[in-house]
Amino acid sequence: MPEQDLSLGRAVVCVPARNEANALPRLIRSLNRQYGTGDGARLRVVVLANNCNDDTVAMLHGLERNAEIPHLALRILEATIASPHAHVGTARRRALDAGAAWLEQEGVTEGVLLSTDADAVAPADWVTANLRALRNAEVVGGRLVLHGETPAADPRLAALHARIEEYWVAVRHLEEVFDPPAHDPAPRHGDHVAASLALRADLYRRVGGLPMLPCGEDNALVARVRWHGGRVRHCPGVSIAVSDRRTGRVTGGMATEMLRRTRVVQGLETYSLPSAAHWRALIARRHRLARCFTDPAGPAAALRALGMTEADLATIGWETCPNGIALVERIEARLGEGIPEAVPVPLDEALAGLQAMLVESQPARAAQVA
């Protein structure tokens, strides 16, 4: 018996594209290879072609005309976005809004929006893996896997990628020891960015849609969901390949990060990240805040015991928090993290500190297992 909630007919993939005639065909063909429940439903895809002066739109029409994407229902929306709003946040917002409207127009119940980028390539189970993970979450972030655009990768760069990933894995291990999230169990990754993000269309509408920011619009959407108490799942079964190109459209995006790493291996700058002490303090703080929601004395009394004033309580609106997730999100958004600002240290020093802290925490980990 097919699992109807995994039907491709529930989903629409939303893609902003500006002058992506070269990269976009790979994504579109990968979406055409998605498999669902065998019910014959076609996967909806919205491409918001904004401010294009290349063959992006002609290429998409060519794929349709040549019957190369028979398993997709494709909508191509052309737009000219004027400055200062001509950025990815506006384009992605329009793509997601169009996807939500499409589902509503066709009466799709429990419809799902999936965000990705024009230079990504999705494995054949990307859509169904997202739909499956959404059974126990409000937002699903997919793991980003770098694929190279150059014939020979610099081994120093590959080693740096691995070292940075080791750092973030250690941060998550620290969280698993001191504040493991029940809704996001290990193993999990740490990515929840626009290249692979899934959420229900009705929730997207309810939280006010994607903030139209020139950078960081994806993290801002996730923050909005958490503000409303939504669970974010970093599912290890959801992944997507993303380009390691170093020339991008967004300052602060993936291309900026790749350029930074290139400069590091060339000896032009140092790669620094927050220390282990920062993460330990932040995890402990979040744990204490979340526990306030279920404190027998009530959230307000528990928060006052942590030093919050009446003005603080009014600012965060604790009365409307549905759970501890929302409480933590609102406090950090309105009042800050409540710990000293992180002072970045060189990557090797930061990683060594995390590894030492994890060794020291082994008794606590053993006690949890027992």
Mean pLDDT: 93
| Elements, N to C (H/E) | EHEHEHEHEHEHHEHEHHHHEHH
Q: How many helix segments?
A: 14
Strand content: 15-25%
Work out the helicity level.
40-55%
The major β-sheet equals: 7 strands, mixed
The strand line-up of the biggest sheet is 3-2-1-4-6-5-7
Provide a short characterization of the protein structure.
With 370 residues, the protein is α/β, with parallel strands linked by helices. The chain has 14 helices and 9 strands. α1 (24-32) links the parallel β1 and β2.
What does this structure look like?
- The longest helix has 24 residues, at 155-178.
- 36% of the residues are buried.
- Helix 9 (276-292) crosses helix 12 (324-335).
- The protein has helices at residues 24-32, 56-65, 88-105, 126-133, 155-178, 201-206, 217-227, 254-265, 276-292, 299-305, 310-316, 324-335, 347-360, 362-369; strands at residues 11-17, 43-50, 72-79, 112-115, 139-147, 197-200, 232-243, 272-273, 345-346.
- A 7-stranded mixed β-sheet has the order 3-2-1-4-6-5-7, sandwiched between helices.
- By secondary structure, the protein is of the alpha/beta class.
- The two termini are 40 Å apart.
Notable characteristics:
14 helices; globular; 15% strand; two-stranded antiparallel ribbon; 370 residues; alpha/beta; 44% helix
Task: Give the topology, please.
Elements: E1 11-17, H1 24-32, E2 43-50, H2 56-65, E3 72-79, H3 88-105, E4 112-115, H4 126-133, E5 139-147, H5 155-178, E6 197-200, H6 201-206, H7 217-227, E7 232-243, H8 254-265, E8 272-273, H9 276-292, H10 299-305, H11 310-316, H12 324-335, E9 345-346, H13 347-360, H14 362-369
Parallel strand pairs: 1-2, 1-4, 2-3, 5-7
Antiparallel strand pairs: 4-6, 5-6, 8-9
Helix pairs in contact: 5-9, 5-13, 9-12
